[in-house]
Design brief:
With 290 residues, the protein is mostly helical. It has three domains: 14-118, 3-Layer(aba) Sandwich (Rossmann fold), CATH 3.40.50; 136-199, no CATH class; 212-276, no CATH class. Helix content is 59%, strand content 2%. It is built from twelve helices and two strands; from the N terminus they run αβαααβαααααααα. It has helices at residues 14-28, 43-62, 67-76, 82-98, 108-118, 135-148, 154-169, 177-187, 190-196, 203-237, 254-260, 270-276; strands at 38-40, 105-107. The protein has a two-stranded parallel ribbon. α1 (14-28) packs across α2, α1 packs across α4 and α10 packs across α11 (254-260). The relative contact order is 0.06.
Amino acid sequence: MALTVYKSSAGSGKTFTLVKEYVKLLIANPQDFKHILAITFTNKATEEMKSRILKALQDLASGNFSDLQQVLLSEFDGRFDAQQVASRAEEAYDLIIHQYSRFEVSTIDSFFSRVLKSFARELNLPLSYEVEMNQKLALTETIENLFRTIDQQPEVKEWLTLFSKEQIENDKSWNVDRQIEKLGNNLFSEAFQEGFSGQSVNFSVLKEVIDRLKAQKAKFENTARLFANKAFDLMNQYGLTVNDFNYSRSGPLAAFYALQKEEYDIEHKKRFIQALDGEMKWGAKKKPKI
């Protein structure tokens, strides 16, 4: 059997193609779902793939015309007509729903973990073993290896040098170890992996992305400070003081004082959020109209 490899950039329809190939096998033989293995990299991708396959089968079973139906009819080239495709899609859907545990779409690590457990006795492993990653140890060793080989990676060296200078200019620690560790922890998150899945990012592209993000961050911070200043200007305009507001300086006004001090993480200012949502009054009892 020939090996078919699909290569394309993010957002170009790989998932549609993979779902189409999976469904095509099921239309040919609805029972085959028990003998098809689909592998993904993340749990999120697994759930998406399962949902897309089931949704495709439902759409085909309904008999409604769709791009997928058109493609399948073309590729079957007369082997099945639209009614037969709908009937077989419905049969495959019902089989999967009633034997969902046999619906094999899983992450690559889950697959290999199951393979290892199948040979646990032969490999002298405990039958109830669990696979865990020592994330901190792996990250520490990776960072140490990075610095050991830094002279062999001029682009990385230049990048870290520029980063250190920027830290010093912003009155922050020039020691990059902690920042690298912080970034490294993000690498283990599915959200980060999903964001960069299928993308090839070099240093020049990464620098452009960072420059754009810095510009957006500066714009956001400037707008936030303007809002805070406007709030205080309105207070002065109407002769209001902090005591006219609920909980005074520690109430909803706390967010504006934080922004004035260039502290932009105001999500934890609960009373400000409550006031925005209408769960708390802005004004103190003596100022009910605020």
